[in-house]
From TrEMBL:
Protein name: (Atlantic silverside) hypothetical protein
Domain CARD: 1-82
Xref: Pfam families: CARD (PF00619)
Organism: Menidia menidia
GO biological process, one term: regulation of apoptotic process
Length: 82
């Protein structure tokens, strides 16, 4: 998973993390406070924060992130083989 993490961080565009945060909140994979904190960070910190927060929450939250990424950025999702 660490290789996918690095590829995600390096490959994600500026707008994708915010879109993912909104979807993660909507699906209960992240709470409002986590989302608001992450949204204030620059992209270089936001992308790792999103993926690390979700990974700490376990399989279901990670699954939600993958589904959201498939929807928000299908190209990156394919590159990551998700």
């Amino acid at each position: 998973m660490s290789a996918v993490r690095v590829q995600f961080i390096n490959g994600v565009s500026d707008s994708v993390p915010n879109q993912l945060l909104d979807k993660l909140l909507q699906h209960g994979a992240m709470i409002n406070e986590e989302m608001q904190t992450a949204k204030t960070k620059p992209r270089a910190e936001k992308a790792p924060d999103v993926i690390d927060t979700v990974m700490r929450k376990g399989h279901e939250s990670s699954k939600t992130l993958i589904e959201a990424l498939r929807e928000v950025d299908p190209c990156l999702s394919r590159e990551l083989k998700l």
